[in-house]
Structure formats: structure tokens, C-alpha cells
Design a protein that fits this description.
The chain is α/β, with parallel strands linked by helices and 470 residues long. Among the domains are: 211 residues, FAD/NAD(P)-binding domain (3-Layer(bba) Sandwich); 96 residues, D-Amino Acid Oxidase, subunit A, domain 2 (D-Amino Acid Oxidase, Chain A, domain 2, 2-Layer Sandwich). It is 31% helix and 21% strand. Helix 1 packs parallel to helix 4, helix 2 packs across helix 8 and helix 10 crosses helix 12.
Length: 470
């Protein structure tokens, strides 16, 4: 039953991340006041943020995320493209080598699109859209110290002591933790008397090194595709790389490698790794005529980590967890931003169905968020769990089954446009993994017609000429 209206409903979001801001946009339509509390000072425009080191690396917003983002913030895709972001078709504008070795054909009739740009631009456009809403207040440069309330109900958050030495409290009817991988939600819940949350980590030991280049002069005159050489988890160390055209006629290049084959921050070694360390030298050859604009930046915070809050035996009213605070993924799969947008949609639907402050709503929100999280999680760990030392437990039966079938679907999709559509339905997070087992997909994977494998990356003559390839 919907809850009865109160005098003024208030909500609070911990974290001014993309997940936090999208959650705030949802709450602003259902609460009278929404406060976003962020530990960093947020920049006014597309600039780096100290608490977001992964912003230096390549990001893709797959079509499942594009659709969710547009539903949350109507017109945002147009705002992004107006400022230089690309809206690319998959696979029309994607040159990709699968982990199992096949080059995908660039079929032109795909129904999926990606947004490509720097993370700084993406965050800035979303931030400006959300914070312009009159019900939302940003409190940045403030770190939350804990939750207020008791085991039964969270009533707000505690802030560090002020000048008078006395801790402050911000009250709210609903608190959303979207503070990212470093979330303290589990610790805070234990402090209120709840049991530790179940957690699983699958760490392939991936390190990333990223560098920004000025695109070759001719390449800036046409819409250059994303070029992606994926790592093979069955052939460790797994090395991969991606070239993402971003705003300002630049290329954001991210190289990756697992234990025993990681890229470094050495500028002299970056292009050598791209040319000799991957399963195909195409990225290294593309960089031969590109001018580096930055030194490489590295990170190793790439583990898949999931906290199963939805399974907790007890849960307080007035509190839920979203975004990377629930599950963080190896960035190579490009799913984190899409899951954040889909989780914000799930938040809004749960609030509308059950009432923003009705008994049990917070727990229902947590369970609703688990669905998009689980879809992306199964895809990510189904690959990463095969790297040596990635997890103390072997892949589950479901993960092994999904991985084996995805391999077959990839092989079929590289040569059959119908199989590729079904594969992209899942990989882009538009539909759950069960789509792979639909009758039409089974037929195309098992017995459907094939065009034959490609001998090399399917760049057009114009693209090869623009980048100076022979």
C-alpha cells in the first residue's frame, strides 16, 4: 500500500558520482528536498576529479545505458553530442577482435548505439543537468562519517565534528549510498546491529595504462571507429587495448594486462606494448602517426567486487545502496555506467510502486537494484574468473555455462548479423542473458549461415588511409 503523505519528504544521497547524481534526479521527482553529500569538491566543468581515478581510462556507454540515461534525463544524448561526444553504432562503428580471436564484421543494420567521450565530459554534462533542478542541493567537500538512526530505521547521516567539536547530523526520510567502490555501507550497517554482508571478489589482476593522443590529422575529418583488441582469459597474461575517439579530435587509448603482462606508466614502453603485446598490432600501428598529448596514467583498482545486500536477513527502513557501492566491475566490459543508470530507473519504479517512505520500500529498492547488477556481474565474472588467481572459488555452474555459450555466440556473431544482434542485446545490457537462449538465437548459433572469418581488422580503405596504415 502507498504510504500516507508527510509534511515534507526529504532524501539524501551519499556521493556525487554519476550513480549518485542519477539517483538524485529520480528522488527529486518524488521528494521535496534532496541533498547530495560529496567528499570531493566537484569541478564546474569537464575537469578531472580526485576521487575518480578511473576517469583517465576509456569508457563506453552501451545502448542499455544510453536508453536508461535518456529516460532519466530526456535530451541528455543531444547535450552530449553537441559538446563533442560521439553516438556510434555497434557494430557499424566498432572494430573489435573477440577474446577467442575472431574479428567481428561491421554489419551496418545493428539497433545498438554507444556514447563515446571522455569521462570528464560525460560527468560534467550529467552534473550540470541534475544540479540545475531546484529541489537538489549539493554539499561537496564534506565526508559522511556514518548513518544516524538505529537497527530498525536509518534517519539520516552523521558528519564530522564542526568548529565547535560537536558532530552534525543531516536528517532524511531516505538515504541512498552511492559513494562508489570505497563505500562504508557494510561497516555502517554493522554498527547499527546488522550482520556483515555477503561479498564476492573476482580479481583478474588487471592493470590499465591510458594516454590521450591527437588523432592523425586526416582521421579527425571522419568519424573514426572504436578499435578494440580484447584479451583472452584462457591465454594468460591477458592483454588488450582500445582506441576511443573522444571530443576535441583526440583518441583516448587504454591498454590493459593481467599479472605477468601489465602495461606501465613508462611513456617509451606504451606504444611498444600496443604494437607487440596484443593479439594484433593494429592499435600500435594506429598510434604511429598520432601525437601523444599526455603521459600514461595507470591504475590497478579493477577487481570485480559485489556486495549482496539484497540477501541480508535484516534491513533498516530508509536506506539503500546503489552503483559501485553494490558492485564494481572490471572496466574493460564498459558496464558500470550502464548499470548505474539502470539502477536509478529501478529505484524510481520501486518508489512509485510501493511509496517513497512506506514500510519495506527500502528493502524492495535493494532487491530491484540487484537485477541490473546481476546481469552485468554474470557477464563480467564469467570471463575474469578464468584468469589464474582471480578468485578462491572456481566459476559457478551458471557462470561456466554462460561463458561457454557466449564463446559460441561470439563465434557465430562475428560472421552472422542475426546472431550478432542477439549477442549485442545482452552485451549492451538491453536484455537479460536469457536472450542468448531464445529459440532464434539458438538456431543462429548452432546452425545459422556464416560469412566466414575475417583475416584482419575490418577498417575501411578511408579509415586506413586517414590513419596512415599500409
Amino acid at each position: 500500500m502507498p504510504d500516507r503523505p508527510t509534511a515534507r519528504r526529504t532524501a539524501l544521497v551519499i556521493g556525487g558520482s554519476t550513480a549518485g547524481l542519477l539517483a538524485a534526479s529520480v528522488l527529486a521527482a518524488r521528494f521535496d528536498e534532496v541533498t547530495v553529500v560529496e567528499a570531493d569538491r566537484l569541478p564546474a566543468g569537464p575537469e578531472p576529479r580526485r576521487g575518480l581515478p578511473q576517469a583517465h581510462h576509456a569508457h563506453l556507454l552501451w545502448s542499455g545505458g544510453v536508453a536508461a540515461l535518456e529516460e532519466l534525463l530526456p535530451g541528455i544524448t543531444g547535450e552530449l553530442t553537441a559538446q563533442g561526444a560521439g553516438l556510434l553504432g555497434a557494430m557499424r562503428d566498432l572494430v573489435s577482435k573477440a577474446p577467442s580471436g575472431q574479428w567481428f564484421r561491421r554489419f551496418t543494420d545493428s539497433r545498438h548505439h554507444m556514447i563515446v567521450c571522455s569521462r570528464d565530459l560525460l560527468d560534467a554534462v550529467i552534473r550540470a543537468d541534475v544540479l540545475a533542478r531546484r529541489r537538489i542541493t549539493l554539499l561537496d567537500g564534506v565526508r559522511v562519517a556514518g548513518l544516524s538512526g538505529d537497527r530498525r530505521r536509518v534517519t539520516g547521516v552523521r558528519l564530522p565534528p564542526g568548529p565547535d567539536g560537536r558532530p552534525a547530523t543531516l536528517r532524511a526520510d531516505l538515504v541512498i549510498d552511492a559513494s562508489g567502490r570505497g563505500s562504508q555501507a557494510d561497516h555502517w550497517l554493522r554498527a547499527l546491529g546488522h550482520a556483515p554482508v555477503e561479498e564476492r571478489v573476482v580479481d583478474a589482476g588487471v592493470a590499465y595504462a591510458s594516454r590521450v593522443y591527437a588523432a592523425p590529422i586526416d582521421a579527425g575529418l571522419l568519424r573514426y571507429p572504436v578499435v578494440n583488441v580484447q584479451a583472452d582469459p584462457r591465454d594468460a597474461p591477458g592483454r588488450g587495448g582500445i582506441v576511443v575517439p573522444i571530443e576535441g579530435d583526440r583518441w583516448l587509448v587504454t591498454l590493459s594486462g593481467t599479472r605477468g603482462g601489465r602495461p606501465t606508466a613508462d611513456p617509451e614502453a606504451f606504444e611498444h606494448f600496443a604494437l607487440t603485446g596484443l593479439k594484433d598490432p593494429v592499435i600500435g600501428r594506429l598510434l604511429a602517426r598520432a601525437k601523444p598529448l599526455t603521459d600514461p596514467v595507470t591504475t590497478r583498482s579493477t577487481a570485480n567486487r559485489r556486495r549482496y545486500y539484497e540477501k541480508s536477513e535484516t534491513w533498516p527502513e530508509g536506506f539503500a545502496v546503489l552503483g559501485d557501492a553494490v558492485a564494481g566491475y572490471n572496466p574493460v566490459y564498459g558496464h558500470g555506467l550502464s548499470v548505474a543508470a539502470q539502477s536509478a530507473l529501478a529505484l524510481g519504479r520501486a518508489l512509485d510502486r510501493h511509496g517513497p517512505t512506506a514500510p519495506g520500500t527500502a528493502r524492495r529498492v535493494q532487491r530491484a537494484v540487484a537485477r541490473p547488477v546481476g546481469n552485468a556481474w554474470n557477464l563480467a565474472v564469467g570471463q575474469d574468473a578464468y584468469y589464474p588467481g582471480a578468485a578462491p572459488q572456481p566459476p559457478t555452474f551458471v557462470e561456466r555455462l554462460l561463458t561457454a555459450y557466449v564463446d559460441k555466440a561470439v563465434a557465430a556473431g562475428s560472421e552472422n548479423p542475426h546472431a550478432l544482434r542477439g549477442l549485442l542485446d545482452v552485451m549492451s545490457l538491453r536484455t537479460p542473458p536469457a536472450r542468448l537462449f531464445a529459440p532464434d538465437m539458438l538456431w543462429h548459433v548452432v546452425t545459422g549461415p556464416r560469412k566466414g572469418p575475417l583475416p584482419g581488422p575490418p577498417l575501411t580503405e578511408a579509415e586506413r588511409e586517414a590513419a596512415g596504415l599500409d
